[in-house]
Amino acid sequence: MKLQPVMRTDEHHRQKHEQILRIGKERKIDVVFLGDSLTRRWEDYDHLWDKCFAEFNPANFGVGADCIENVLWRVLNGEIDGIDPKLFLVLAGTNNLSKNTVEEIVDGILQIVEVIRSKCPRSKVVVFGLLPRDKDENGEECMTRIRAINHQLEQHARCGDFVYEYFGDSLLTASGRIDKSIMPDGLHLNEDGYRIAGPIVREIIRKHMPKCCDSE
User: Fold this and answer.
1) pTM recorded for the entire structure
2) Which CATH architecture has domain 11-206?
3) Which DSSP symbol is given to 126?
4) Which of 2, 42, 163, 183 is the most exposed place for a label (fewest CB within 10 A)?
């Protein structure tokens, strides 16, 4: 089953969509962070966001509770129209784990990449592997499926027009388990989690935006 774009009608989504549309019109954007609550929650820690990413003219296009089909709707409905960023960072799919197969999730992420490539052909696209998660909304273990999804994304990146990056291992304990000190609910990062992720993501940006590496 191919995922179809879905517009959310809740007030939070409408407000965020309108906010993102304004961002694209108001200022220059070089790096777009696109995804769900794991991206949106950078807004809760502005000091970390600014410290790690301010030099890149970043924009946060994350919306809490978005599934792949909602992100797909957003990129098809104006959010990336008229912008020309150097880099997109895509992190989506964890909210689909409870209702879609591995193949459907991978295909949906590839659909997002396809829309980005068609609307912003000069932009480079980085797809992040899904981050570690304890259980999905049905209470089922996630990591086996997450590893399968990430493996397929990595394989597609080898012959596709995007690059694959993964930093989830840095969020696990030494024994490879979910670190509840930085992911208290087994999914979302707290401030300590973003403090770990920030420098890693910054280096990934620098890796794929070499012209930005001269400034600190």
Assistant:
1) 0.95
2) 3-Layer(aba) Sandwich (3.40)
3) E
4) 2
